Amino acid sequence: MVDPTNTGTDFGGYYGTDAYCPESVPEQPVQSQDFNHSKLGRSAGFRLPWGRAQDVMPSNLFARWPPKALREIELIGNLLEEAGHQGQQDHQSIRYAPLAFRSKLINALEVFGKALFWVSLPLGVVIYVMHAYLTDSKLLIALQDVYSFILMITGIPALMWLSSTLVFTLFPRWSVKAGRGPEWELDRRNGMVRVWSYRRAVPFIGPRKVTVFEAPFYEFDGFVAGGATRYGPRFDFILCHRYSKLTVHIGDILLGWHHNPRPCYALWDFLQNYMDVSRPLPEFPVLEPHRHKDPVTAEHDRKSGRPERYWRDMDDKTFKQKEDEMLSRVLSIDTEQRPNLMAKKVRYAHMTPEDMLAYGRGSRRGRNGARAPRPSVGYVQRDWK
């Protein structure tokens, strides 16, 4: 059980002064304008409430690094780190940095080649059988008739899959190349969100000018952006800065889009739990090797007797059961019934029922239009090393 009074301040100053803790969020400035969402945008999406986060995460994110993959990383090392990749997933931060173009190309060829091959192979068999039946031909003659077509629809995807696999197997260090640098970061230790921008004075010529935007995590709100496709509704998760036009499309990387908004709810809960230094790190398998480095997490694991290699030594069958349990918890998440506890600290430009519910239960202080502190936001110019 997590001690909600533990703010992480008893660990030798390890956490920064802006580290996120729900119990110590300061009074926020009044939001005079909703910069990121027009009336049309608000009708197609909605802001998610702060607080009362459950111990959940999207099941596809949970299953992205199964125990087998974690053991392989331990055995052969992390090629991304060797390549100078600046992405990060540990006790300090979650930082996204895209790979170089050639790495993306090799990966895309493997993924799409494999998928197309397994789709086209049974399709080719069906075409062959149907041709033999409709033409009343012998099987060998029918195969000769459709052989070139079947070879085309299965051979090209197979070649894509095989060639990309061979390149990565034979030249792994050449295949994995770091890109230009990070794009966004959630810094648990210091409670900050950072977004990188890269610009050149002349396109494709000269050095890039790197701009880093940073602000405390509690100045951002989670939004579910709704849309429609030919296959039905789609929902994306976006992190929006309350006092500027900045949006961080975290859901594109950690989640993808879904036909149901509940995975977006689960991602918002996961992000709140990850950034909250009064709690241990979430039970996210890829974070397990770093749990002992985070003071609050290390203390929690010591008191609870959590095995150091709980996820890494788990068998595939048990992990699949854990994945199914996580999906069940995501589908029953109660986000839509929660009050927005951040509404006790800030007056939003556009109030929601969740805001009013929290307002009725919480303090009126800071919500009467009185002068409030300015947002703790700024631009930091520097070259990212």
Can you give a write-up of this model?
The protein is α+β, with helices and mostly antiparallel strands. It contains 12 helices and 10 strands. It has helices spanning 39-44, 59-62, 67-76, 79-82, 101-135, 139-170, 172-175, 250-254, 262-275, 295-304, 316-331, 353-361; strands spanning 45-47, 88-89, 93-96, 184-187, 192-199, 209-216, 220-229, 232-241, 247-248, 378-381. β8 (232-241) and β9 form a beta hairpin. α5 runs antiparallel to α6 (139-170).
How would you summarize the topology of this molecule?
Layout: H1 39-44, E1 45-47, H2 59-62, H3 67-76, H4 79-82, E2 88-89, E3 93-96, H5 101-135, H6 139-170, H7 172-175, E4 184-187, E5 192-199, E6 209-216, E7 220-229, E8 232-241, E9 247-248, H8 250-254, H9 262-275, H10 295-304, H11 316-331, H12 353-361, E10 378-381
Antiparallel strand pairs: 1-7, 2-3, 3-4, 4-5, 5-6, 6-10, 7-8, 8-9
Helix pairs in contact: 5-6
Short description:
This protein is α+β, with helices and mostly antiparallel strands and 385 residues long. The protein has helices at 39-44, 59-62, 67-76, 79-82, 101-135, 139-170, 172-175, 250-254, 262-275, 295-304, 316-331, 353-361, and strands spanning 45-47, 88-89, 93-96, 184-187, 192-199, 209-216, 220-229, 232-241, 247-248, 378-381. The chain has twelve helices and ten strands.
List keywords for this structure.
single chain; 385 residues; alpha+beta; 2 domains; six-stranded antiparallel sheet; four-stranded antiparallel sheet; 10 strands; 39% helix; disordered N terminus; disordered C terminus
